[in-house]
Amino acid sequence: MSTLRSKTTSFPAHLLFLVLAPGLAAAVYALSLGPVRAAADDARRPSPIMSWRGADWLEREGRHEEQRPEEILRAMGLRDGDVVADIGCGTGYFTRRMARAVAPGGRVYAVDVQPEMIERLETGLAEAGLTNVVPLRGENDDPKLPPGSLDWILLVDVYHEFQQPRAMLARIREALRTSGKVALVEYRLEGTSALHIREEHRMSPEQVLSEWQPAGYSLVALHEFLPTQHLFIFEKARDR
Known about the structure:
CATH topology: Rossmann fold
Number of strands: 8
Order of helices and strands: HHHHEHEHEEHEEHEE
CATH class: Alpha Beta
Number of domains: 1
């Protein structure tokens, strides 16, 4: 497990232990609290989907320093032969890096609901000479992934835009192998580190857990080494 860093002044006190000892804390958290459910007045509405017209922002200067993609992939432990997916792949910023990480024997399914994003993705893959990526045009309630086939699924800054999150969580769970895991990256709602991002495009740990745990996922770790974002690692709940 990589060393975690956190701005403790901006992290909820009752979740701080997840940062300090994520592996043990996740198990204690699940056993002591059970599924977390949001209060009625904390209901979350999905944000609008970012249009393909803003695709250049996905390849912006400075994204590498902010999102540290190599560190995220290192936390996932990707290796040659893994079958993985990048849901909400956009222009393929993470897809290209995942493709190299699982080569030569692995495969990446790159999923987006906007055909214009898929076109940008394919152009970037061709320019990079990457051939182990399968582009998929997903739908709002189905990423179209083959069932029981994925070692890892990555979602970066996209879950909060799912227009039908319950259906998507069910389909994602079906696509995972028994040992499969999900890496979820979302800007922090709490604190001040992500105030440059509109509030509807940020999520708190409470919001995430209140939706993912009832959907049949268990929290493995919550990493806080990114400057402005949470990195959640989920697996299938053992009792489902």
